[in-house]
Design a protein that fits this description.
The chain has helices at about 1-25, 30-45, 50-55, 240-245, and strands spanning about 45, 70, 80, 90, 105, 110-115, 130, 135-140, 150-155, 160-165, 175-180, 185, 200, 210, 225, 230-235, 250, 255, 275, 295. It is of the alpha/beta class and about 300 residues long. The relative contact order is 0.07. Bound molecules: 2-acetamido-2-deoxy-beta-D-glucopyranose (8 copies).
Amino acid sequence: MQTTYFLFVAALALHFIATSSASIIVANNQNNTVDLNALLAFKAAIFDPLRIIPTNWSTSTSVCNWIGITCNARHHRVAAIDLSYMGIAGTIPPQLGNLSFLVGLNVAKNSFHGHLPTELSRLRRLKYIILEGNAFEGELPSWLGALTALRYLSFWDNGFSGSLSGRLSNFTNLETISLGFNFFTGNLSEELSALPKLKLLEIQYNQLAGPLPQALFNLSSLQIVAFTNNSLSGYLPARICDYLPQLQGLYLSWNYFEGEIPSGIGECSGLQNLSLSHQGRSQKFIFGGLKCIKNFFL
Ligand SMILES: *[C@@H]1O[C@H](CO)[C@@H](O)[C@H](O)[C@H]1NC(C)=O
Ligand SMILES: *[C@@H]1O[C@H](CO)[C@@H](O)[C@H](O)[C@H]1NC(C)=O
Ligand SMILES: *[C@@H]1O[C@H](CO)[C@@H](O)[C@H](O)[C@H]1NC(C)=O
Ligand SMILES: *[C@@H]1O[C@H](CO)[C@@H](O)[C@H](O)[C@H]1NC(C)=O
Ligand SMILES: *[C@@H]1O[C@H](CO)[C@@H](O)[C@H](O)[C@H]1NC(C)=O
Ligand SMILES: *[C@@H]1O[C@H](CO)[C@@H](O)[C@H](O)[C@H]1NC(C)=O
Ligand SMILES: *[C@@H]1O[C@H](CO)[C@@H](O)[C@H](O)[C@H]1NC(C)=O
Ligand SMILES: *[C@@H]1O[C@H](CO)[C@@H](O)[C@H](O)[C@H]1NC(C)=O
């Protein structure tokens, strides 16, 4: 599966290289210089013990031929950076904000650290940003809301911290928010809104507190909600499936919820997994109607 995926990506990259290389040779224009300078700044900010990037990212060839770089066929501009699983370390330099055609940034499973530069807010075409499995730190940037094309955001397993209150709103196109295994605090305030396309919301293993906000139950596209191991409290609304008709997985274990398990939860037609175990202050959850649910942990 993984191999097939990588072959597919490699084929895709080769396709782009093949269709773009002819004009790349003559393309000595300003725009490509901007991309080149941005990637040279990135190269200088990367520590690569295997020395793949220092040798491969050579100015004697177009950036579109560099490992991990995909250019778009029409403009020959940098469209995607994929440096995942490369065993590299370093930081994200502000110059990356100059890659105005960038659609995807993936540096998953390396040892990147530091703060995300504000300049990334200029990446108006960015659809996915995957930083999972690194050591980035700082707050969830407020400028993320400026990235109106963003669909997929994964900051999973990093050192991010600070309050999430008011930070999760106005992501018009966002479908996935994955913030698990960080140090986020605060409550999910009512500002958790204007996320009309959100399907997956994962903030497990953080330090969130307070009740689930009413606004959460307005996000009717939600399929998976994972808040395992925080300090959330309060009650689950009785008509949860009316509010979240697409719900497939609800993970709330290791918190401080109380009250009855809403009897209507068994009527959630798509709900496959429900975990409610280990509610710290009380074990007040009472078994409700769970006939349709495949996996549940109380
Ligand atoms: C640079 O990019 C802009 C925006 O896409 C485009 O309008 C312009 O023609 C490009 N310039 C060159 C020299 O390729
Ligand atoms: C860089 O890596 C790409 C992809 O593996 C390869 O096609 C290219 O020849 C390499 N370039 C250099 C200068 O090593
Ligand atoms: C690129 O980004 C840097 C830092 O954000 C900035 O100083 C520079 O003027 C930008 N523009 C170009 C064309 O490199
Ligand atoms: C979200 O958008 C609304 C309406 O455009 C605006 O009033 C509000 O300040 C925005 N919130 C954030 C956090 O950007
Ligand atoms: C959520 O946090 C904010 C800021 O810390 C606070 O003003 C507000 O009262 C909290 N709301 C709830 C419901 O706990
Ligand atoms: C829920 O959505 C409705 C309709 O879009 C809106 O009027 C209401 O204010 C929202 N409620 C919350 C708590 O966000
Ligand atoms: C919950 O997370 C804390 C750190 O945030 C960790 O120490 C604890 O072991 C976790 N609990 C479980 C049950 O995994
Ligand atoms: C439900 O749990 C199973 C087993 O852990 C998992 O494979 C599946 O992806 C989960 N489904 C959802 C919708 O979370």
